[in-house]
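Re: the request from the purification team.
They wanted to know what the chain is likely to look like in 3D before they choose a buffer screen. I agreed to run a prediction and write the result into the notebook, where they can find it.
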Amino acid sequence: MTSSSKDYEACNQLIENYLNNDAEPTLERFLNDNEKVIGKPDWDKLLLAAVKKFDTGPHPVPQQQKPPPSIASPSAPSKSSKKPITAAMVDKYFEPLVDDKKWTLSTGKVVEDTMKKYTVTCNFEHPIHSLILDIDDKMWVKDGYFTEQEMREIKDARCPKDPELPTHIAEYLKGYAGNKDLESIFDHANHRLFHPKRESDLFWIHQAFVKTLNLFYSNYLPITDHSETDILNRVWGIVQECFDVSHL
């Protein structure tokens, strides 16, 4: 008897025992209970073939379902949807940086060099490879790349201050205070209209309220299973309209 035949028989027996001893069998529970066994080479095909043989109908097996590898990292992607990264690619991103132009913190730590230390631990392309440092990612402090003090220094560096709202806009927005339901917000939004050219800022704010209300009235919001394209068109489209009469 070949090794493949023995594996197939063992797989059949394993599934048969499971089906006979579980009142409500599911493929997910079977995979979790037998993860160490089914993680062996070729068992994914044997498993699907055997499950199909014993399956009685209430718990169909997806044709492309595969057992998770027993030694895979929880964060490792199941498919190469991300671009694999190599040491040569890391050098390509960081080698051109000139030392005397790098950012040195008050503690003496060089930000770009510290970022590079993290890149060499990545198996797949990460925003850091484009020299993007997410200051809200707690990993930087948790994993010891920066201290809390250093992260505060990074966050505060060259941080632009938001300009004060013009008085007429601030007064208009204050008018919505206390309106906590759709009807009261709708009534306030429609008690006055604005000219799209002469009062372009107030016109856009007013339109943003009205169009957002419409998304709630039509049950488009809150967002659940909407596609990214839908959200870009329906939600972010409202924001984009603020640039219609802007100089930016």
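For the purification team: Residues 55 and 61 are 8 Å apart (CA to CA).
Please add any questions underneath this entry.
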